[in-house]
Amino acid sequence: MSDPKELDALVEAIAARVRERMQQETVPPLPGVRGTWNDQSSLKRWTQNVVSRVGSDGTVGKESEGLARMIDHTMLKPDATRADIERVCREAVEYGFASVCINTTWLPLAVQMLRGSRTMAICVVGFPLGAAVTTAKAAETREAIRLGAEEIDMVVNIGALKSGDHDLVLNDIRAVVKAAQGRPVKVILETKMLSREEKIAACALSKAAGAAFVKTSTGFGGGGATAEDIALMRQVVGPDLGVKASGGVRSAEDAASMIKAGATRLGASASIAIVTGGQGKGAY
Amino acid sequence: MSDPKELDALVEAIAARVRERMQQETVPPLPGVRGTWNDQSSLKRWTQNVVSRVGSDGTVGKESEGLARMIDHTMLKPDATRADIERVCREAVEYGFASVCINTTWLPLAVQMLRGSRTMAICVVGFPLGAAVTTAKAAETREAIRLGAEEIDMVVNIGALKSGDHDLVLNDIRAVVKAAQGRPVKVILETKMLSREEKIAACALSKAAGAAFVKTSTGFGGGGATAEDIALMRQVVGPDLGVKASGGVRSAEDAASMIKAGATRLGASASIAIVTGGQGKGAY
Fold first, then answer.
1. B133, A107: Cβ pair inside 8 Å?
2. Residue B132: which CATH number?
3. Is the ipTM, as predicted for this complex, more than 0.90?
4. Which of A105, A129, A187, B1 would staple B78 via disulfide (CB 3.0–4.6 Å)?
5. Is-contact A194 A202, C-beta < 8 A?
6. What are the backbone angles phi and psi of residue A213, rounded to the nearest 5°?
7. Which residues form the domain of B10?
Protein backbone atom coordinates (compact mmCIF):
# COMPACT_ATOMS: atom_id res chain seq x y z
CA MET A 1 0.00 0.00 0.00
CA SER A 2 2.92 2.39 -0.50
CA ASP A 3 1.56 3.26 -3.96
CA PRO A 4 -0.37 6.56 -3.69
CA LYS A 5 -2.81 5.31 -6.33
CA GLU A 6 -3.76 2.35 -4.16
CA LEU A 7 -4.32 4.71 -1.23
CA ASP A 8 -6.52 6.95 -3.37
CA ALA A 9 -8.50 3.94 -4.55
CA LEU A 10 -9.14 2.75 -0.99
CA VAL A 11 -10.17 6.20 0.22
CA GLU A 12 -12.43 6.63 -2.79
CA ALA A 13 -14.06 3.24 -2.21
CA ILE A 14 -14.82 4.15 1.38
CA ALA A 15 -16.05 7.59 0.36
CA ALA A 16 -18.38 6.08 -2.25
CA ARG A 17 -19.96 3.81 0.36
CA VAL A 18 -20.33 6.74 2.68
CA ARG A 19 -21.93 8.99 0.04
CA GLU A 20 -24.39 6.25 -0.84
CA ARG A 21 -25.37 5.89 2.80
CA MET A 22 -25.79 9.62 3.29
CA GLN A 23 -27.90 10.40 0.26
CA GLN A 24 -30.87 11.45 2.33
CA GLU A 25 -28.95 12.98 5.16
CA THR A 26 -26.49 15.82 5.20
CA VAL A 27 -23.72 16.50 7.66
CA PRO A 28 -24.08 20.03 9.02
CA PRO A 29 -21.33 22.43 8.00
CA LEU A 30 -18.98 23.60 10.72
CA PRO A 31 -19.88 27.12 11.76
CA GLY A 32 -17.22 29.67 12.61
CA VAL A 33 -16.23 28.85 16.16
CA ARG A 34 -13.62 30.28 18.44
CA GLY A 35 -10.38 28.37 18.17
CA THR A 36 -7.28 27.84 16.14
CA TRP A 37 -8.11 24.63 14.39
CA ASN A 38 -8.04 26.04 10.90
CA ASP A 39 -5.57 28.87 11.31
CA GLN A 40 -3.17 27.77 8.60
CA SER A 41 -1.39 31.10 8.16
CA SER A 42 -0.03 31.55 11.68
CA LEU A 43 0.79 27.88 11.62
CA LYS A 44 2.92 28.01 8.52
CA ARG A 45 4.73 31.06 9.80
CA TRP A 46 5.52 29.37 13.07
CA THR A 47 6.63 26.17 11.45
CA GLN A 48 8.96 27.91 9.04
CA ASN A 49 10.57 29.87 11.83
CA VAL A 50 10.78 27.18 14.45
CA VAL A 51 11.71 24.12 12.49
CA SER A 52 14.98 25.73 11.49
CA ARG A 53 15.66 27.55 14.77
CA VAL A 54 14.73 25.27 17.59
CA GLY A 55 17.57 23.75 19.55
CA SER A 56 20.15 26.42 18.81
CA ASP A 57 19.65 28.19 22.12
CA GLY A 58 17.19 25.74 23.68
CA THR A 59 14.16 28.01 23.39
CA VAL A 60 11.76 28.97 20.63
CA GLY A 61 11.70 32.70 21.37
CA LYS A 62 8.84 34.91 20.27
CA GLU A 63 7.31 32.24 18.11
CA SER A 64 6.40 30.35 21.30
CA GLU A 65 3.20 32.38 21.43
CA GLY A 66 2.09 31.03 18.07
CA LEU A 67 3.04 27.57 19.22
CA ALA A 68 1.09 27.93 22.48
CA ARG A 69 -2.04 28.67 20.44
CA MET A 70 -1.70 25.24 18.85
CA ILE A 71 -1.50 23.30 22.11
CA ASP A 72 -4.32 21.58 23.98
CA HIS A 73 -2.95 21.65 27.54
CA THR A 74 -4.05 18.26 28.75
CA MET A 75 -4.88 16.67 32.10
CA LEU A 76 -6.73 13.38 31.77
CA LYS A 77 -5.35 11.28 34.63
CA PRO A 78 -8.20 9.64 36.54
CA ASP A 79 -6.69 10.66 39.86
CA ALA A 80 -6.30 14.33 38.94
CA THR A 81 -7.70 16.42 41.77
CA ARG A 82 -9.51 19.74 41.81
CA ALA A 83 -6.19 21.38 42.65
CA ASP A 84 -4.56 19.76 39.58
CA ILE A 85 -7.31 21.05 37.29
CA GLU A 86 -7.10 24.54 38.79
CA ARG A 87 -3.33 24.59 38.21
CA VAL A 88 -3.68 23.44 34.58
CA CYS A 89 -6.29 26.15 33.91
CA ARG A 90 -4.06 28.86 35.40
CA GLU A 91 -1.11 27.64 33.32
CA ALA A 92 -3.19 27.60 30.14
CA VAL A 93 -4.27 31.21 30.60
CA GLU A 94 -0.77 32.34 31.53
CA TYR A 95 0.89 30.73 28.52
CA GLY A 96 -1.98 31.30 26.09
CA PHE A 97 -2.62 27.66 25.22
CA ALA A 98 -5.48 26.95 22.79
CA SER A 99 -7.40 24.95 25.35
CA VAL A 100 -7.48 22.89 28.49
CA CYS A 101 -8.36 19.27 27.62
CA ILE A 102 -9.99 17.42 30.52
CA ASN A 103 -12.44 14.70 31.48
CA THR A 104 -16.10 15.78 31.49
CA THR A 105 -16.42 15.68 35.28
CA TRP A 106 -14.15 18.77 35.44
CA LEU A 107 -15.94 20.86 32.79
CA PRO A 108 -17.91 23.09 35.17
CA LEU A 109 -14.72 24.03 37.04
CA ALA A 110 -12.66 24.61 33.88
CA VAL A 111 -15.36 26.62 32.10
CA GLN A 112 -15.63 28.85 35.15
CA MET A 113 -11.87 29.32 35.45
CA LEU A 114 -11.32 30.03 31.75
CA ARG A 115 -14.17 32.51 31.36
CA GLY A 116 -12.99 35.71 29.71
CA SER A 117 -9.73 34.18 28.49
CA ARG A 118 -8.72 33.10 24.99
CA THR A 119 -8.33 29.52 26.24
CA MET A 120 -11.13 27.04 25.50
CA ALA A 121 -12.41 24.28 27.79
CA ILE A 122 -12.49 21.09 25.72
CA CYS A 123 -13.08 17.50 26.77
CA VAL A 124 -12.83 13.84 25.86
CA VAL A 125 -15.78 11.53 25.17
CA GLY A 126 -15.94 7.72 25.17
CA PHE A 127 -12.45 7.93 26.56
CA PRO A 128 -10.01 6.22 26.38
CA LEU A 129 -11.40 2.92 25.06
CA GLY A 130 -13.89 4.21 22.46
CA ALA A 131 -16.01 1.16 23.25
CA ALA A 132 -19.03 2.84 24.79
CA VAL A 133 -22.21 2.36 22.79
CA THR A 134 -22.96 5.21 20.33
CA THR A 135 -25.97 6.53 22.23
CA ALA A 136 -23.82 6.87 25.36
CA LYS A 137 -21.12 8.77 23.47
CA ALA A 138 -23.75 11.09 22.02
CA ALA A 139 -25.33 11.65 25.44
CA GLU A 140 -21.94 12.45 26.97
CA THR A 141 -21.30 14.90 24.11
CA ARG A 142 -24.64 16.65 24.55
CA GLU A 143 -23.98 17.03 28.25
CA ALA A 144 -20.44 18.32 27.58
CA ILE A 145 -21.76 20.97 25.18
CA ARG A 146 -24.42 21.96 27.71
CA LEU A 147 -21.69 22.41 30.32
CA GLY A 148 -19.71 24.65 27.96
CA ALA A 149 -17.20 22.44 26.14
CA GLU A 150 -15.99 24.16 22.95
CA GLU A 151 -14.51 21.09 21.27
CA ILE A 152 -15.02 17.34 21.68
CA ASP A 153 -12.22 14.76 21.42
CA MET A 154 -13.93 11.39 20.93
CA VAL A 155 -12.33 7.96 20.58
CA VAL A 156 -13.21 5.98 17.46
CA ASN A 157 -14.86 2.57 18.00
CA ILE A 158 -11.61 0.63 17.64
CA GLY A 159 -13.17 -2.82 17.92
CA ALA A 160 -15.76 -2.08 15.24
CA LEU A 161 -13.04 -0.66 13.00
CA LYS A 162 -10.95 -3.79 13.43
CA SER A 163 -14.03 -5.93 12.77
CA GLY A 164 -14.52 -4.13 9.44
CA ASP A 165 -17.82 -2.64 10.56
CA HIS A 166 -17.36 0.72 8.79
CA ASP A 167 -21.06 1.52 9.02
CA LEU A 168 -20.92 1.45 12.80
CA VAL A 169 -17.72 3.51 12.89
CA LEU A 170 -19.23 6.14 10.59
CA ASN A 171 -22.53 6.36 12.44
CA ASP A 172 -20.76 6.50 15.79
CA ILE A 173 -18.77 9.57 14.70
CA ARG A 174 -21.79 11.17 12.99
CA ALA A 175 -23.86 10.83 16.17
CA VAL A 176 -21.20 12.65 18.17
CA VAL A 177 -20.81 15.33 15.46
CA LYS A 178 -24.57 15.87 15.55
CA ALA A 179 -24.64 15.99 19.36
CA ALA A 180 -21.79 18.53 19.30
CA GLN A 181 -24.14 20.99 17.56
CA GLY A 182 -21.50 22.58 15.36
CA ARG A 183 -18.61 22.47 17.80
CA PRO A 184 -15.52 20.85 16.26
CA VAL A 185 -15.16 17.11 16.90
CA LYS A 186 -11.78 15.40 16.90
CA VAL A 187 -11.63 11.66 16.28
CA ILE A 188 -8.89 9.86 18.19
CA LEU A 189 -7.70 6.85 16.21
CA GLU A 190 -5.38 5.23 18.78
CA THR A 191 -2.92 4.64 15.95
CA LYS A 192 -0.78 2.23 17.95
CA MET A 193 -3.57 -0.36 17.76
CA LEU A 194 -4.32 0.05 14.05
CA SER A 195 -2.88 -1.31 10.81
CA ARG A 196 -2.06 1.15 8.02
CA GLU A 197 -5.30 0.23 6.23
CA GLU A 198 -7.30 0.76 9.43
CA LYS A 199 -5.72 4.20 9.95
CA ILE A 200 -6.65 5.17 6.39
CA ALA A 201 -10.21 3.90 6.77
CA ALA A 202 -10.61 5.72 10.10
CA CYS A 203 -9.44 9.00 8.57
CA ALA A 204 -11.73 8.67 5.55
CA LEU A 205 -14.70 7.79 7.76
CA SER A 206 -13.97 10.68 10.14
CA LYS A 207 -13.90 13.14 7.27
CA ALA A 208 -17.07 11.71 5.76
CA ALA A 209 -18.84 11.89 9.12
CA GLY A 210 -18.15 15.59 9.52
CA ALA A 211 -15.32 15.53 12.03
CA ALA A 212 -13.10 18.63 12.22
CA PHE A 213 -9.90 16.79 13.18
CA VAL A 214 -8.31 13.39 13.28
CA LYS A 215 -6.02 12.78 16.25
CA THR A 216 -3.42 10.11 16.89
CA SER A 217 -3.58 8.83 20.46
CA THR A 218 -5.29 8.79 23.84
CA GLY A 219 -2.06 8.56 25.82
CA PHE A 220 -3.51 5.51 27.60
CA GLY A 221 -3.16 2.85 24.91
CA GLY A 222 0.61 2.66 24.61
CA GLY A 223 2.47 4.40 21.82
CA GLY A 224 1.87 7.97 20.70
CA ALA A 225 2.16 10.37 17.80
CA THR A 226 4.73 9.64 15.08
CA ALA A 227 5.63 11.91 12.17
CA GLU A 228 4.87 9.00 9.84
CA ASP A 229 1.31 8.64 11.14
CA ILE A 230 0.73 12.40 11.03
CA ALA A 231 1.86 12.50 7.39
CA LEU A 232 -0.43 9.60 6.48
CA MET A 233 -3.41 11.14 8.27
CA ARG A 234 -2.78 14.50 6.56
CA GLN A 235 -2.56 12.75 3.20
CA VAL A 236 -5.93 11.04 3.68
CA VAL A 237 -7.95 13.94 5.13
CA GLY A 238 -6.46 16.60 2.83
CA PRO A 239 -5.98 20.26 3.73
CA ASP A 240 -9.47 20.99 5.10
CA LEU A 241 -9.39 19.00 8.33
CA GLY A 242 -7.17 19.49 11.36
CA VAL A 243 -4.67 16.84 12.40
CA LYS A 244 -3.80 16.62 16.10
CA ALA A 245 -0.63 14.96 17.36
CA SER A 246 -1.01 13.59 20.87
CA GLY A 247 0.86 11.12 23.04
CA GLY A 248 4.58 11.55 23.66
CA VAL A 249 4.85 15.15 22.43
CA ARG A 250 7.19 16.49 25.11
CA SER A 251 9.60 19.05 23.63
CA ALA A 252 9.80 21.85 21.06
CA GLU A 253 11.66 19.43 18.80
CA ASP A 254 8.79 16.93 19.03
CA ALA A 255 6.34 19.72 18.28
CA ALA A 256 8.29 20.95 15.27
CA SER A 257 8.58 17.45 13.88
CA MET A 258 4.81 16.89 14.17
CA ILE A 259 3.95 20.24 12.59
CA LYS A 260 6.38 19.65 9.76
CA ALA A 261 4.61 16.33 9.10
CA GLY A 262 1.22 18.03 8.90
CA ALA A 263 -0.13 18.49 12.44
CA THR A 264 -2.21 21.61 13.14
CA ARG A 265 -2.81 20.94 16.83
CA LEU A 266 -0.79 19.32 19.57
CA GLY A 267 -2.08 17.57 22.67
CA ALA A 268 0.36 17.57 25.56
CA SER A 269 0.71 17.60 29.31
CA ALA A 270 4.30 18.86 28.92
CA SER A 271 3.00 22.02 27.23
CA ILE A 272 5.08 24.43 29.29
CA ALA A 273 8.25 22.49 28.55
CA ILE A 274 7.36 22.62 24.86
CA VAL A 275 6.97 26.40 24.73
CA THR A 276 9.92 27.16 27.00
CA GLY A 277 12.36 24.79 25.35
CA GLY A 278 12.49 22.14 28.09
CA GLN A 279 11.82 18.44 28.10
CA GLY A 280 8.63 17.03 29.62
CA LYS A 281 7.82 13.68 31.14
CA GLY A 282 4.85 11.31 31.20
CA ALA A 283 2.97 9.34 28.57
CA TYR A 284 0.87 12.17 27.20
CA MET B 1 -5.57 3.65 61.26
CA SER B 2 -4.84 0.04 62.19
CA ASP B 3 -7.13 0.39 65.21
CA PRO B 4 -10.54 -1.12 64.33
CA LYS B 5 -12.21 1.55 66.47
CA GLU B 6 -10.74 4.32 64.35
CA LEU B 7 -12.02 2.56 61.25
CA ASP B 8 -15.49 2.27 62.76
CA ALA B 9 -15.45 5.94 63.69
CA LEU B 10 -14.52 7.02 60.16
CA VAL B 11 -17.16 4.82 58.54
CA GLU B 12 -19.76 6.07 61.02
CA ALA B 13 -18.83 9.71 60.35
CA ILE B 14 -19.27 9.20 56.62
CA ALA B 15 -22.51 7.30 57.15
CA ALA B 16 -23.89 10.08 59.33
CA ARG B 17 -23.24 12.66 56.62
CA VAL B 18 -24.85 10.40 54.08
CA ARG B 19 -27.95 9.79 56.21
CA GLU B 20 -28.36 13.51 56.76
CA ARG B 21 -28.19 14.13 53.01
CA MET B 22 -30.67 11.40 52.20
CA GLN B 23 -33.38 12.25 54.71
CA GLN B 24 -35.90 13.13 52.01
CA GLU B 25 -34.79 10.55 49.51
CA THR B 26 -34.67 6.80 49.71
CA VAL B 27 -32.45 4.40 47.87
CA PRO B 28 -34.58 1.75 46.17
CA PRO B 29 -34.11 -1.76 47.57
CA LEU B 30 -32.50 -4.33 45.30
CA PRO B 31 -35.14 -6.67 43.93
CA GLY B 32 -34.44 -10.34 43.45
CA VAL B 33 -32.52 -10.53 40.19
CA ARG B 34 -30.95 -13.41 38.38
CA GLY B 35 -27.36 -13.86 39.42
CA THR B 36 -25.03 -15.18 42.03
CA TRP B 37 -24.07 -12.03 43.82
CA ASN B 38 -25.52 -12.99 47.14
CA ASP B 39 -25.24 -16.75 47.04
CA GLN B 40 -23.25 -17.15 50.24
CA SER B 41 -23.94 -20.83 50.81
CA SER B 42 -22.45 -22.26 47.60
CA LEU B 43 -19.63 -19.82 48.07
CA LYS B 44 -18.69 -21.01 51.53
CA ARG B 45 -18.89 -24.61 50.46
CA TRP B 46 -16.62 -24.00 47.51
CA THR B 47 -14.13 -22.02 49.53
CA GLN B 48 -13.85 -24.64 52.25
CA ASN B 49 -13.26 -27.37 49.72
CA VAL B 50 -10.95 -25.56 47.37
CA VAL B 51 -8.75 -23.55 49.64
CA SER B 52 -7.39 -26.73 51.16
CA ARG B 53 -7.34 -28.84 48.00
CA VAL B 54 -6.14 -26.69 45.16
CA GLY B 55 -2.67 -27.36 43.87
CA SER B 56 -2.44 -31.00 44.91
CA ASP B 57 -3.33 -32.32 41.46
CA GLY B 58 -3.40 -29.02 39.60
CA THR B 59 -7.17 -28.90 39.18
CA VAL B 60 -10.10 -28.02 41.38
CA GLY B 61 -12.31 -30.96 40.43
CA LYS B 62 -16.10 -30.84 40.79
CA GLU B 63 -16.01 -27.65 42.78
CA SER B 64 -14.95 -25.82 39.62
CA GLU B 65 -18.61 -25.51 38.70
CA GLY B 66 -19.31 -23.55 41.86
CA LEU B 67 -16.25 -21.46 41.15
CA ALA B 68 -17.33 -20.78 37.56
CA ARG B 69 -20.60 -19.34 38.87
CA MET B 70 -18.57 -16.71 40.74
CA ILE B 71 -16.59 -15.53 37.72
CA ASP B 72 -17.33 -12.57 35.46
CA HIS B 73 -15.63 -13.70 32.25
CA THR B 74 -14.15 -10.43 31.08
CA MET B 75 -13.15 -8.90 27.74
CA LEU B 76 -12.65 -5.15 27.92
CA LYS B 77 -9.75 -4.52 25.55
CA PRO B 78 -10.59 -1.62 23.22
CA ASP B 79 -9.37 -3.56 20.19
CA ALA B 80 -11.48 -6.65 20.94
CA THR B 81 -13.28 -7.64 17.75
CA ARG B 82 -16.68 -9.16 17.12
CA ALA B 83 -14.95 -12.56 16.86
CA ASP B 84 -13.33 -12.04 20.28
CA ILE B 85 -16.68 -11.24 21.90
CA GLU B 86 -18.33 -14.24 20.25
CA ARG B 87 -15.58 -16.52 21.55
CA VAL B 88 -15.88 -15.15 25.09
CA CYS B 89 -19.66 -15.66 25.06
CA ARG B 90 -19.28 -19.26 23.86
CA GLU B 91 -16.70 -19.95 26.55
CA ALA B 92 -18.91 -18.43 29.25
CA VAL B 93 -21.84 -20.66 28.35
CA GLU B 94 -19.64 -23.76 28.05
CA TYR B 95 -17.98 -23.30 31.45
CA GLY B 96 -21.04 -21.83 33.19
CA PHE B 97 -19.48 -18.51 34.17
CA ALA B 98 -21.72 -16.05 36.02
CA SER B 99 -21.48 -13.47 33.28
CA VAL B 100 -19.65 -12.01 30.33
CA CYS B 101 -18.31 -8.54 31.26
CA ILE B 102 -17.87 -6.27 28.23
CA ASN B 103 -17.91 -2.70 26.99
CA THR B 104 -21.37 -1.34 26.19
CA THR B 105 -20.82 -1.32 22.42
CA TRP B 106 -20.93 -5.15 22.50
CA LEU B 107 -24.09 -5.53 24.61
CA PRO B 108 -26.49 -6.27 21.73
CA LEU B 109 -24.25 -9.09 20.46
CA ALA B 110 -23.64 -10.58 23.92
CA VAL B 111 -27.28 -10.40 25.00
CA GLN B 112 -28.25 -12.21 21.82
CA MET B 113 -25.58 -14.90 22.23
CA LEU B 114 -26.32 -15.53 25.92
CA ARG B 115 -30.10 -15.72 25.57
CA GLY B 116 -31.47 -18.87 27.19
CA SER B 117 -28.27 -19.57 29.12
CA ARG B 118 -27.53 -19.06 32.81
CA THR B 119 -24.80 -16.57 31.93
CA MET B 120 -25.59 -12.86 32.25
CA ALA B 121 -24.45 -10.05 29.95
CA ILE B 122 -22.98 -7.34 32.17
CA CYS B 123 -21.04 -4.21 31.28
CA VAL B 124 -18.80 -1.40 32.47
CA VAL B 125 -19.80 2.26 32.72
CA GLY B 126 -17.60 5.37 32.92
CA PHE B 127 -14.79 3.00 32.27
CA PRO B 128 -11.89 2.89 33.03
CA LEU B 129 -11.22 6.44 34.28
CA GLY B 130 -14.43 7.09 36.23
CA ALA B 131 -14.06 10.75 35.25
CA ALA B 132 -17.11 11.15 33.03
CA VAL B 133 -19.66 13.59 34.40
CA THR B 134 -22.45 11.95 36.46
CA THR B 135 -25.19 12.61 33.92
CA ALA B 136 -23.12 10.82 31.25
CA LYS B 137 -22.56 7.81 33.51
CA ALA B 138 -26.28 7.67 34.24
CA ALA B 139 -27.17 7.95 30.54
CA GLU B 140 -24.75 5.16 29.67
CA THR B 141 -26.30 3.03 32.42
CA ARG B 142 -29.87 3.64 31.21
CA GLU B 143 -28.85 2.69 27.70
CA ALA B 144 -27.05 -0.44 28.95
CA ILE B 145 -30.14 -1.58 30.87
CA ARG B 146 -32.30 -0.91 27.81
CA LEU B 147 -29.94 -3.10 25.77
CA GLY B 148 -30.24 -5.92 28.29
CA ALA B 149 -27.34 -5.57 30.74
CA GLU B 150 -28.07 -7.44 33.96
CA GLU B 151 -25.40 -5.81 36.11
CA ILE B 152 -23.43 -2.55 35.89
CA ASP B 153 -19.76 -2.20 36.87
CA MET B 154 -19.13 1.53 37.23
CA VAL B 155 -15.88 3.30 38.13
CA VAL B 156 -15.97 5.63 41.14
CA ASN B 157 -15.06 9.28 40.51
CA ILE B 158 -11.45 8.87 41.63
CA GLY B 159 -10.50 12.52 41.28
CA ALA B 160 -13.48 13.69 43.34
CA LEU B 161 -12.70 11.07 45.99
CA LYS B 162 -9.09 12.25 46.19
CA SER B 163 -10.29 15.87 46.36
CA GLY B 164 -12.41 14.97 49.41
CA ASP B 165 -15.65 15.71 47.56
CA HIS B 166 -17.67 12.91 49.14
CA ASP B 167 -20.97 14.49 48.13
CA LEU B 168 -20.08 14.21 44.46
CA VAL B 169 -18.85 10.63 44.88
CA LEU B 170 -22.06 9.62 46.65
CA ASN B 171 -24.37 11.32 44.17
CA ASP B 172 -22.43 9.89 41.23
CA ILE B 173 -22.99 6.35 42.48
CA ARG B 174 -26.60 7.02 43.44
CA ALA B 175 -27.38 8.34 39.96
CA VAL B 176 -26.04 5.13 38.40
CA VAL B 177 -27.90 2.97 40.95
CA LYS B 178 -31.10 4.81 40.08
CA ALA B 179 -30.49 4.50 36.33
CA ALA B 180 -29.84 0.76 36.78
CA GLN B 181 -33.48 0.35 37.85
CA GLY B 182 -32.85 -2.35 40.41
CA ARG B 183 -30.08 -4.18 38.61
CA PRO B 184 -27.02 -4.67 40.83
CA VAL B 185 -24.35 -1.96 40.54
CA LYS B 186 -20.70 -2.67 41.33
CA VAL B 187 -18.44 0.24 42.22
CA ILE B 188 -14.86 -0.13 41.00
CA LEU B 189 -12.51 1.67 43.39
CA GLU B 190 -9.22 1.38 41.45
CA THR B 191 -7.53 0.54 44.74
CA LYS B 192 -4.03 1.00 43.38
CA MET B 193 -4.63 4.77 43.18
CA LEU B 194 -6.19 5.14 46.63
CA SER B 195 -4.92 5.56 50.16
CA ARG B 196 -6.33 3.33 52.89
CA GLU B 197 -8.61 6.15 54.06
CA GLU B 198 -9.85 6.71 50.50
CA LYS B 199 -10.60 2.99 50.08
CA ILE B 200 -12.62 3.04 53.30
CA ALA B 201 -14.51 6.17 52.31
CA ALA B 202 -15.28 4.75 48.86
CA CYS B 203 -16.67 1.55 50.38
CA ALA B 204 -18.83 3.42 52.88
CA LEU B 205 -20.14 5.77 50.20
CA SER B 206 -20.86 2.87 47.81
CA LYS B 207 -22.86 1.08 50.46
CA ALA B 208 -24.74 4.24 51.40
CA ALA B 209 -25.55 4.93 47.76
CA GLY B 210 -27.19 1.54 47.26
CA ALA B 211 -24.47 -0.30 45.36
CA ALA B 212 -24.61 -4.10 45.41
CA PHE B 213 -20.84 -4.65 45.22
CA VAL B 214 -17.54 -2.93 45.69
CA LYS B 215 -14.81 -4.05 43.29
CA THR B 216 -11.06 -3.56 43.36
CA SER B 217 -9.69 -2.68 39.90
CA THR B 218 -10.32 -1.84 36.28
CA GLY B 219 -7.30 -3.76 34.99
CA PHE B 220 -6.22 -0.58 33.17
CA GLY B 221 -4.87 1.49 36.05
CA GLY B 222 -1.91 -0.63 37.11
CA GLY B 223 -2.11 -2.96 40.09
CA GLY B 224 -4.94 -5.35 40.81
CA ALA B 225 -6.75 -7.21 43.55
CA THR B 226 -4.87 -7.99 46.76
CA ALA B 227 -6.13 -10.13 49.63
CA GLU B 228 -5.41 -7.23 51.96
CA ASP B 229 -7.68 -4.86 49.99
CA ILE B 230 -10.43 -7.47 49.74
CA ALA B 231 -10.34 -7.99 53.50
CA LEU B 232 -10.51 -4.25 54.15
CA MET B 233 -13.39 -3.78 51.70
CA ARG B 234 -15.28 -6.69 53.27
CA GLN B 235 -14.71 -5.23 56.72
CA VAL B 236 -16.18 -1.86 55.70
CA VAL B 237 -19.21 -3.03 53.70
CA GLY B 238 -20.12 -5.87 56.04
CA PRO B 239 -21.80 -9.12 55.00
CA ASP B 240 -24.64 -7.67 52.92
CA LEU B 241 -22.74 -6.39 49.91
CA GLY B 242 -20.75 -8.32 47.36
CA VAL B 243 -17.00 -7.81 47.03
CA LYS B 244 -15.47 -8.43 43.60
CA ALA B 245 -11.77 -9.12 43.12
CA SER B 246 -10.53 -8.04 39.70
CA GLY B 247 -7.18 -7.39 38.12
CA GLY B 248 -4.45 -10.02 38.21
CA VAL B 249 -6.68 -12.96 39.23
CA ARG B 250 -5.17 -15.63 36.96
CA SER B 251 -5.17 -19.01 38.73
CA ALA B 252 -7.22 -21.16 41.08
CA GLU B 253 -4.75 -20.21 43.82
CA ASP B 254 -5.40 -16.51 43.20
CA ALA B 255 -9.14 -17.19 43.26
CA ALA B 256 -8.97 -19.14 46.50
CA SER B 257 -6.90 -16.44 48.16
CA MET B 258 -9.40 -13.74 47.18
CA ILE B 259 -12.41 -15.76 48.31
CA LYS B 260 -10.73 -16.57 51.60
CA ALA B 261 -10.20 -12.83 52.13
CA GLY B 262 -13.90 -12.12 51.54
CA ALA B 263 -14.50 -11.89 47.78
CA THR B 264 -17.86 -13.15 46.48
CA ARG B 265 -17.20 -12.50 42.79
CA LEU B 266 -14.10 -12.63 40.61
CA GLY B 267 -13.43 -10.68 37.45
CA ALA B 268 -10.97 -12.36 35.11
CA SER B 269 -9.99 -12.86 31.51
CA ALA B 270 -8.08 -16.01 32.53
CA SER B 271 -11.32 -17.59 33.71
CA ILE B 272 -10.78 -20.91 31.93
CA ALA B 273 -7.31 -21.25 33.42
CA ILE B 274 -8.81 -20.56 36.83
CA VAL B 275 -11.44 -23.31 36.64
CA THR B 276 -9.18 -25.85 34.93
CA GLY B 277 -6.20 -25.35 37.21
CA GLY B 278 -3.94 -23.52 34.74
CA GLN B 279 -2.20 -20.18 34.83
CA GLY B 280 -3.50 -17.23 32.82
CA LYS B 281 -1.77 -14.19 31.41
CA GLY B 282 -2.61 -10.51 30.93
CA ALA B 283 -3.39 -7.66 33.26
CA TYR B 284 -7.02 -8.54 33.96
1. yes
2. 3.20.20.70
3. no
4. A129
5. yes
6. -140, 155
7. 4-22+59-276
> Is the pLDDT assigned to residue A57 strictly greater than 80?
no
Report pLDDT digits (tens) over A66-89: 999 999 999 999 999 999 999 999
> Which residue of A75, A76, A77, A79 to mutate against B (max B Cβ within 10 Å)?
A79
A220, A153 in Cβ contact below 8 A? no
Which run of H or of E encompasses B67? helix B64-68
Instruction: Establish if A51 belongs to a structural domain.
Output: no
* Cα–chain center distance at A227: 15
Closest CA to B87 of A48, A146, A163, A32: A163
Q: Are A221 and B78 in contact (CB under 8 A)?
A: yes
Q: Compute φ and ψ for B34, nearest 5 degrees.
A: -60, 140
Chain-chain contact of A131 with B104 (C-beta, under 8 angstroms):
yes
Catalytic residue among A137, A186, A207, A244: A244
Q: Which of A77, A103, A106, A217 to mutate to test the interface with B (most CBs of B within 10 A)?
A: A103
Taking contacts as CB-CB distances below 8 angstroms, the residues of chain B near A131 are: 76, 78, 80, 103-106
Compute the distance between CA of residue A187 and CA of residue A18 in angstroms, rounded to an integer.
17
Total domains present in chain B: 1
Using a cut of 0.90, tell me whether the model's pTM lies above it: no
Residue B259: name the closest of B93, B106, B36 by CA: B36
